[in-house]
Amino acid sequence: MDYRRIGGTDLDVSVLCFGPMRAAAKDGADTEASRDGARALEAALALGVNFLHSSYEYGTRWMMTDVLRDHPKRHDIHHVIKVPVPDWDDDSAFSEAKFRKRVEDALKELATERIAVLQWMWRTRPHDDAHALPVLANVADDLTAAFERLRDEGKAGTLMTMPYTVPTARAALDTGRFAGLVGYYNAIEMEMSEFFDELEANDRSYLCIRPLYQSILTDRRKSWDEVPEDHYLQRTRKENPNAFRQRQAVADTFADEIDGSMMRFALRFPLFSPTVASVITGLNTVTQVEEAVAALDNVDPRPDLVERARDLWRSGFGS
């Protein structure tokens, strides 16, 4: 397992970050899928993964508690958790009590003394820049004060943020309050890559979510015709009906690098940028863990390849 330093911190994290979003039943049921998820987490830890992503929203921390409570490596694990305050149906004000509760609950559920990275998010209705940007400006001071209190108590390590758009990412970085960004990044969704040079120059990092673009950048399917009507990917189809055309453009452009496995290429792709410290991806079985660990072995920066991908993205994937 390779490790990278999160810029501006003393954290050396595994380049693979275990995501448990669908790794267990949300109701705590002891199903075969839940047992698979527990075995997957145990396998990840055994193979050197020391970075785990979680959220109270997923409803799967009960499985993580069972694995981590008495695990011999639990003191060596770094956790990143989602902390959405204010959340969708809040009144756009920052609540330190709610912020603290999210952290305190995670400490207990993850059997740890410190959350290494708080992935702060702020959500608004309507969900657009016109509403989100004023909220950021209004809550930044209170957020920073609340985080610093948790940090001084030894309960939190560093503060990063997941903005949903380029303008909100720009505004968040301009505050100077965050150790880096967390967000989507893959060979199709490259919007946030415009900040990579700036992050690296300022000793900051990026944590990548959704490297497989909802499984489109895998070897399972090559067109919408292969996606069942009730599949979760139909939501992605509404947002981006050209996703599989874009996938084909990536496949054609990087045929030599893909070499028969789109999934392996897609998992490795974020790490071709040195700004990306870790790739957060959902892992539900031991086989998936083993494949991901193998894929992310010895990935060196490839600025030439990243620039080719950016050229393809800027071109609209040849449209």
Strands, total number: 10
Our measurement of the CA-to-CA distance between the termini, rounded to an integer number of angstroms, reads: 39 Å
Low-confidence stretches: none
For the sheet with most strands, the description reads: 4 strands, parallel
* Structural domains: how many: 1
Q: For the record, what CATH class applies?
A: Alpha Beta
* Named CATH topology: TIM Barrel
Strand order of the largest sheet: 3-10-9-8
Average per-residue pLDDT, rounded, comes to 95
Percent range for helical residues? Answer: 40-55%
**What is the global morphology?**
globular
- How would you classify the helix and strand content by structural class? alpha/beta
Radius of gyration: 19 Å
Helix tally equals 12
What is the H/E order? EEEHEHEHEHEHEHEHHHHEHH
Describe the model.
With 319 residues, this protein is α/β, with parallel strands linked by helices. The protein has one domain: TIM Barrel (Alpha-Beta Barrel), CATH 3.20.20. 40% of the residues lie in helices and 16% in strands. It has 12 helices and 10 strands. The protein has helices at 32-46, 61-68, 96-109, 129-152, 166-175, 196-201, 233-239, 243-253, 255-258, 262-268, 286-295, 303-314, and strands spanning 3-5, 12-14, 16-19, 51-54, 78-84, 115-121, 156-161, 180-184, 205-209, 276-282. The chain has a 4-stranded parallel beta sheet with strand order 3-10-9-8. Strands 4-5-6-7 form a 4-stranded parallel beta sheet. A two-stranded antiparallel sheet has the order 1-2. Helix 1 crosses helix 2 (61-68), helix 1 (32-46) packs parallel to helix 11 (286-295) and helix 4 runs parallel beside helix 5 (166-175). The longest helix is centred in the middle third of the chain and has 24 residues, at 129-152. The termini are far apart.
